[in-house]
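Collaborator request log, item 7. Partner lab (contact: R.S.) asked for a structural prediction of Nucleoid-associated protein QHT84_13380 to inform their binding assays.
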Amino acid sequence: MFGDMMNMMGKLKETQQKIEATKQRLHTVLIDEQSHDGLLKVTLTANRTLKSVTIDDSLLADKEQLEDYLILVLNKAIERASSVNETELAAVAKEGMPNIPGMDKFF
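Returned to partner:
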């Protein structure tokens, strides 16, 4: 029984290390998003860090329109980045979890 507990603790520590490695890797996964007409483009990492914004000159004439574009495109990009982030981290966490009855519904 004590050996099982030590084995489980070791596996949890290994899983924690894998999660940290995955978080670091997600800094290099880039999510590109753009407006429907291509006038605004953004790039985020899967950890939701903004890397670049490209704005067509035609959007600079109308502040409200530019603000609307930024909100829409950034929200879409953040949603996609969050989905990638959560999927990747959940996969690593599930892989490393000990087989405890009932825990599968949490992942």
